Amino acid sequence: MSELKLMKGNEALAEAAIRAGADAYFGYPITPQSEVIEYLMAEKPFDRTGMVVLQAESEIAAINMVYGAAGAGKKVMTSSSSPGISLKQEGISYISGAELPCLYANVVRGGPGLGTIQPSQADYFQSTKGGGHGDYHQIVLAPASVQEMADFVKDGFDLAFKYRIPVLILSDGVIGQMMEKVDLFDPIPRLTNDEIIERYPWATTGKKSGTERRIITSLDLDSHKMEKHNQKLQAKYKEITEKEVRYELIDCDDAEYIFVAYGSSARIAQKAVKLARAKGIKAGLFRLITLFPFPSVKMFEMCGKGIKGFLAVEMSAGQMVEDVRLAVKGCSKVEHFGRFGGVVHTPEEVLEALEQKIIGG
Amino acid sequence: MAEITLEEIIKPENLVYTKTKLMTDKVLSYCPGCGHGTAHRITMEVIEELGLEEQTIGVAPVGCSVLAYEFMNIDMQQAAHGRAPAVATGIKRVWPEKIVFTYQGDGDLAAIGTNETIHACNRGENIVIIFINNGIYGMTGGQMAPTTLPGMKSSTSPYGRDVQTMGNPLKATELVAQLPGTYFVTRQSVHTPRNVRKAKKAIKKAFENQRDGKPGVSFVEIVSNCNSGWKMTPRDSNVWMEENMFPFYPLGDIKVDGQLL
């Protein structure tokens, strides 16, 4: 039964994992996302659904536990925040190379280094351009509400298994910590072992005598075979780019100026749209939901239709703005605004930036 | 001597030895004289003899045995360097009824993977860890390992391991034996037929422990030679191992049925 609750974003993510029929969560505490594992431990998901929850000795161990369980066909996830996500990159690269499905969340905090525990969106490059070593991508979903923290868990697992790819929920300290009402989706039963064996013939579940063994690996010492493997990965990313782009257009129909934003910056930019409209400025919001794949085609289409400029609003020194520039191919003015290092911008600052950098600039 | 024809030799009743079907036909990538091939074979023989083929999932490391999955004819996962115990934990936690083991070298288990090794052992994961210790990084060309002996030469300790500046060799097996989460800890070798039989017996006990749900890790170290890394003939390397490795890494059981000996 769906259920209306008041929850923190991190708690909604955790509750959604249980409801999505996850088989396991492996994690390690880090601010501002420790509520995920705390909630799971308190909820006793093993009693509710048989879901395993384990606090690992490090983020590195946690992601490698995900690798092992995902390779054995189970629905598994982890979560962390920026410094912890950096540690997980080795595992993410291996998971991408071995084509395993899994879900992980990054409740982003300010960096670089230990940085700060305050919200940030400075992990965009890491999330969308690879993160670890090698030519790979992952699907990146950017929730802008507690509701989406829950819903994207279900969607994320579906996408992960559809493409055998890691899916990242790229959240931030605002979305993770704030409380909102959330309509929790109906619980989905975990797959039985027989269902897993039948559905995922690639998974290491113990080979039947006389049949081919299953090997989960990202290694091939023959460079020509490795090139072929990479081509296969690239074809998958191309298909994802064609089929899985998600975004939301708010007040864009008659807009002359577009804020491009995701996550908590999109919430702030939405308020800036209202402030702008009150002053007679025709502003709209292009809210990114998938960061990879990036909605380049739609953004370029909008270019010729009376748009006088795009302002990329993000809590970073300017990362997503590069993809906006690539998308519009110089056909429109593109500028960046964002506070960073853990500082969250205000709607007034965002509007002021539009007026100065785009309208007046 | 009575004449015996080929037809008679290959009759099933005259069969004295056959390669386990749990080893593939692929030619081993190991150097001639190396102990890895024997360690692979006895591990797979144990799995076959215990009837665990359809339940077992193995985890290969990074190092000389990175391609163990090419030779071991069961479901296998290849782990990142040092992470095999975490990967095995992930598998075992979601498939507790399966048999899960890692096969790791000394660099993998006792240097880059020390954290994963200690914590998997300390949590008492119900897995088998097979640890091949040859005191050197073989795959990358003979660099100093965590288990390289004091004074022993390698390509990164070309004048011998100076413990004052390079640190001491790590006795990972004695270390994990101290942890409450290990159930069976032993050190063996595979350099003589007698030792091969003893090592196989130890590996069998390790897998039986997991099959029977005995609480904790069953940990089998195999001290082995690396004739190419040590720059010796296979025979000389075995003599050198007996004279130098065994005094530092003495063979025998360290912990049995959860009790330190």
Major β-sheet profile of chain B: 8 strands, mixed
Termini distance of chain A? 53 Å
Strand order within the widest beta sheet of chain A = 3-2-4-5-7-6-13
Given the helix and strand composition of chain B, which structural class is it? alpha/beta
Q: Spans of chain B of 5+ residues with little confidence (pLDDT < 50)?
A: none
Largest sheet features of chain A? 7 strands, mixed
Radius of gyration computed on alpha carbons of chain B? 18 Å
Percentage of residues assigned to helices of chain A: 40-55%
Strand percentage of chain B, roughly? 15-25%
Report the portion of residues of chain A in β strands. 15-25%
Averaged pLDDT of chain B = 96
The name CATH uses for the topology of chain B is: Rossmann fold
Q: Number of helical runs of chain B?
A: 11
Write up this protein.
Chain A is an alpha/beta fold. In chain A, 43% of the residues lie in helices and 20% in strands. In chain A, helix 7 (146-163) links the parallel strand 6 (139-141) and strand 7 (166-172). In chain A, helix 1 (9-19) crosses helix 7 (146-163). Chain A is globular. Chain B has 261 residues and is of the alpha/beta class. In chain B, 38% of the residues lie in helices and 18% in strands. The mean pLDDT of chain B is 96. Chain B contains eleven helices and ten strands. In chain B, strand 7, helix 9 and strand 8 (217-223) form a beta-alpha-beta unit. Chain B has one domain (29-260): 3-Layer(aba) Sandwich (Rossmann fold), CATH 3.40.50. The longest helix of chain B has 19 residues, at 193-211. Classes of the chains: A alpha/beta (361), B alpha/beta (261). Strand 9 of chain A pairs parallel with strand 2 of chain B.
